[in-house]
Amino acid sequence: MTGRVTIRAGWRWATGEWSFFHSPGGLCTPVLRHGPFHLFLALSLASTCFGQQHRDTLLLKEVEVTATRLSTFSPGMKVEVLDSATVARHASSDLATLLANESPVFIKSYGLGSLATSSFRGGSANHTAVLWNGFNIGSPMNGQIDFALIPVGMMDDVRIQYGAGTALWGSGAVGGAIHLDGHPRFDQGLALQAGASFGSFNDQRYMVNAGFGNARWSATAALLQAAANNDFPYVNSVVPGSPEHRQNNASFQQLTLVTQVYHRFNEHQRVHFGHWYQESERAIPPTMHQASSAAQQVDGTQRITGGWQFTGRNTVVETRAAWFDEGLQWFPFGTEAVRSRSRTAIAEAEVRHLVGDRHTVSTGMNLTHTSALSDGYPNKPQQDRTALFLAYRYRSRNDRVLATWAARQELMNGAWVPFTTSVGGAVRFTEYLHARANAAKVYRIPTFNDLYWVPGGDRDLLSEVGWAGEAGLAVEQRVGSVQFKGDGAVFSRMLDNWIIWLPGTSYWSPSNVMQVWSRGMEVRAEVTVPVQRTTITLSVLTNHVVSTNQVAKTPNDASVDRQLIYVPMYSGQARLTVSRGAFGLAMQMNYTGYRYTSTDNRSYLEPYILHTARASYALKPGKRHTLALEVQANNLFDTVYQTVADRPMPLRNYRAGIRLYFLGKKAERP
Amino acid sequence: MTRSYRVLPLLIMTLLGACRKDKPEPPDDRPLTAGQGGVYVVNEGNFQWGNASVSYYDIATGNSTEDLYAPANGNGLGDVLQSMALHNGRAYLVVNNSGKVVVVDPDDFVASATITGLVSPRYLVPVDDTKAYVTDMMANNIHILDLSSNSITGSIPCPGWTEQLVLAYGKAFVTNQARRYVYVVDTATDQLVDSIQVSKGGNSIVVDAQDKLWVACTGGSGTAPGLYRIDPVALEVEASFPYTSGTNSPWRLTINGDHTQLFFLNEHVYRMAITDTVLPGVPFVAANDRNFYGLGVDPNSGEVYVADAIDYAQRGMVFRYGADGTALNGFLAGRIPGGFVFR
Question: What is the ipTM of this complex?
């Protein structure tokens, strides 16, 4: 996307998660739009644009309209954007594959197309909040999201916010939050995208994505279909002799339809409507110990969001609502179903006001009503939550310092949930060196399963609560034509009353018995070297997370000061990309270190390295049409590995894809 | 500019120095030859994790080893080891979620045969020199095995979830977790001949010094948890010992060497003489927040072994108590220790 927005001196309303700052005659670096770059916190980068004197009131309003809670009030936190180019690389995959390959978030995958959950900075699967159009779409029943069920083709970009975001986003954003948002495409005309990909094990995916935008309307619709047999060969290491077996009962089919419509009444008002429909059928494969499995799972989801936004001279008012209906049927033996279903209704209002020149204040309220039906809750429980939140942002006169403070108080079924607050700041030392720091109180309310499951659920369970802090440094340097970027972050988080299910005399029940201290370091470095007409990029990402249980659960518990299970202490990625004109070549290595499978850290899974190779070619038969071809080989060197103990993982496999883009006269090239 | 260059690598290096190593300690499988005077610990392992194992404790030396099977055979035992039986110089390991019985040498634990084709086997009892019955959780059958050929030769239809069984007077008395009966099988004809009504959740059964049978039931579906004493000749319940509260769950019923003292788990360890007329009110060994999961009594010394499964996700711990209840020592076993076999 070319820069269309000019900014007043420095930045006022943070925007631009995705637009970039291009000021003719200004000193903005043409930021990060090409290739596999990751945009850092938009605000801290926005500070690289200074000295721009040009003012354009109309365009400023455009900027204001796209300001969101994430970009305005997150200074001090590390936010990464997986931009549309990065996302396009995985357009035929699911969110689990995208995150596993492009971010330090650890994805625990049970197999190709099977359940995939996340671990963010040493947290558990329900310490990651996933938000769509600003609403948390995690299951109220188990607090988790199956990342394998979210197709990448439905989103333009993915924003990963690391660390403690509960003051901004509410319960669950403890380890981090992943934002999946749509963006309006006003005045961009028509755009059509169609794609198909074919991969090993009869993996077939199709995608059609149409977009339209004029001065008043913006609409996008995406239809995605995916299916695979997943009968891959694998090495069965639990059988004597480690023979090669073929995976069975692992097929899946999925259909997704996502539409986003925006209507702009005038330069002050606009409304938005979003709809996400999805259905999937999955066969649940056996483990290496079982000869076969007949289990099946059927998921159906409907998510609808709507909103109205009014932008005044210094004020933005937003009201939004959402309705989620998610159901799941599980057939353990392929015959009878175990059913669960949840419905959530959310209403939210927010007012943001610019006071003077440098102070932004925001306040809002969120009302959420959830009800769930499951064979495990015979009482049909319901939950009402009310949250009040407040946020403030300060910008220093010379644009070098940004500071924010946020607070949130939530009420759940009439009982107070721990008060949370966060404080953060970002400092721009020089044009090339930024620092950030953040401290926050975090919480997570118990899930429906924790509270209402029969038998075992405990209505008196407390919320998990704790403190988290992080500090980071971002460096950007250009030496001649070589560009270097680096980012280092350290974090520490102590979470108390961590809920864990433990066995009782006749059944299991959850208790607030664990205290977990997670700390670590993330380092990312990237070097881009142009050599004549070729561009070579090398990027390295390393992740060190120590996440230990601090308190004995029972008298002889040997898990104290030991790493939580399935949280790797060391993981990393390295990627080399070579692009020249229409051709691109990439080689990637992913390292995953030891993961323990016992809480006393005596049983473990071996570390492994996976290699991926990808070649792409983009043909432009006309000025506005692009044909992109891509082939990819995964697990290039036939590594035998396990992500979850004794669950089969595929050996080398391939995928080839083709994508066509037709762009109208005004459309921007993705 | 140069200053900012130096900051980042310096920071990284200082932090790396403080980093923790992730390489795990090597396992503590000291090779230990099992022999007479020892206890085998049956470790279930986690469902679908395939980490079942057998530990061993040498009573004379106090040495223990966490895993006998894997170092001897080069691969894991399978998924969920429910029980083990010694017979005619062989050990029979009933691997519940792998649907098999593995035959091993009790001394060096090298596997000599595997009997497959079972559904969800639970307990094996030899009914004569070459024939054995194996109960099953899901097959609605009791399997008949031929131990000389290591094969399944037949089955006895029996509904529900058959659990522990015991022999008396030429019959096999089989508990059932899903029914409120103890089922009676004639071992000569392999026929189901009778059923005796108790409570639901029958899980363990023993023979006492007066040739009476005792059954522990966890109750449910309107029946009370408790113990029952059965006359195996008249094929009827002689005495009932029900709990008034349904929160009780007596299981792991076992008996000492001279068959005069019963021991069972109900959160704590309880001891009851076979001549007692009421259930014991005071624990023999209090759990004190430990997660008691297995129980065994040494037939020679009367010492009591209790297994603590802790959080089900780490090595369990076994505590040894004297016949009078005094605490002795403890040792680490495998994942979720559930049973003891004395030799």
Answer: 0.82
